[in-house]
Amino acid sequence: MNRRELDPESSPSARFGQLLRTLRDERGWTQDELAARAGCSGAHISAVETGRRSPTRRFAASVDRALGTGDRFERLSQAVRHTALIEGFPEYVALEAQATEIRLYEVGVIPGLLQTPEYAATLEADAVRREAITPEQADERVELVVRRQNSLARSPSPLITAVLDEGCIRRPMGAPSAMDAQFARLLEFAERPNTVLQVAPFSMGARRPFSLPITVLTMPDRSLVSYAESAHRGHLERESASVLPILAAYHQLQAEAHSQAASVALIERLRKGFK
């Protein structure tokens, strides 16, 4: 019987599911047997154990009673409900930390791997103002930006290619000093030996192959993974037949975008205008 294995460090939901499976196995119970004790279905237990369904507080409390674990699962379920990360993103972050090549395209805002802490904090503060997330979730997101950037400081360094839609660098974010620091971060990024930075100008028009952000990872075994997200969830694609057309479109995007030298010159001009 094939069982989907979860990385308990990837997300609170994965941690909950892995612990539930471990304690159930220790008792020698099937999913249906635990379900009978918890007052739900075996299919529900399976969905939670594999991360396909998030545990509610009521479900967690019933599991605690069935397993005799006090309020352990109820406390874990709070972390699941309060997480600031959309479904699928923690799994992507784990893959990003292993990738040998990262190709990303972003629209509207500077991507997390290139953000300064001040820029990230300003971005999340607006989400708090709109009541889209809590202040605690905003802090979690900013901390993750820093952790993701730190994970790239490894040897050998991954090759990172970043193509930014022109709107990313023209959209003001916070005080002029914050934008100045963000422009400085972009220019520093472009100088690294393992990076490429390009701006996709508005003038590309219909020749722009992507309308939403996209990332393509090359893993150590040379396999390809793409990642894209909607407002509520992220989607990982591992099938080469599906990822290769995305990679081809990315190469077309690079060919149409400004060169790195022209992109750097544009950023430097915009930086002067923000001072």
From TrEMBL:
- HTH cro/C1-type domain: which residues? 20-73
Query: Which domain of life does the UniProt lineage start with?
Result: Bacteria
Q: What PROSITE patterns does the record point to? A: HTH_CROC1
Protein name per UniProt: Helix-turn-helix transcriptional regulator
Q: Which SUPFAM superfamilies match?
A: lambda repressor-like DNA-binding domains
What InterPro entries is this protein classified in?
A: Cro/C1-type_HTH (IPR001387), DUF5753 (IPR043917), Lambda_DNA-bd_dom_sf (IPR010982)
